[in-house]
Amino acid sequence: MGSAAPLSASVLLLLLLLRRAEQPRGAELTFELPDNAKQCFHEEVEQGVKFSLDYQVITGGHYDVDCYVEDPQGNTIYRETKKQYDSFTYRAEVKGVYQFCFSNEFSTFSHKTVYFDFQVGDEPPILPDMGNRVTALTQCPNASPTPLPPLTVPV
Questions:
Q1: Residue 93 φ/ψ region, left for φ over 0, alpha for ψ in the -120 to 50 degree band, beta for the rest
Q2: Is 76 helix (H, G, I), strand (E, B) or coil?
Q3: What pLDDT, on the 0 to 100 scale, is given for residue 1?
Q4: For each successive 10 residues of the chain (155 residues), what is the average pLDDT?
Q5: How far does CA 13 lie from the centroid of its chain?
Q6: Based on C-alpha coordinates, what's the Rg of the chain?
Q7: Do 87 and 52 meet the contact criterion of CB atoms below 8 Å apart?
Q8: pLDDT for the residue numbered 122
């Protein structure tokens, strides 16, 4: 009888770990980016797994930064310059460490505060079978099965 409790606790722990393994993972961070500086972050991603990066400059200068993402071979898969905010989603073509960097190297006197949210993995639907349900976001009461005629503007 004494061995049943440790066994059930071990099984429960294993089930919790397996459940956690299938959930997406991610990180949110707000950080200071000094003038003439670059800050990079790294994340290991399995091949075929989706990841997304959302970022926004919260304070500083013209509220803009440069941002780029590189795959494990050093290929740039995303690059934007002087953006206030943006989103990027990608499905990893190779397994390895992906790097995303924020740069304020173009600024000589203005530091920035940058927020980002980096998510790895597909987020499971909130409800089971959600893709096959009609919801407020998938049904429009004013939708017409026939196209509307073009608008004419009197001159």
A1: alpha
A2: strand
A3: 47
A4: 52 48 75 96 95 96 96 97 96 97 94 96 69 56 58 67
A5: 29
A6: 23
A7: yes
A8: 79
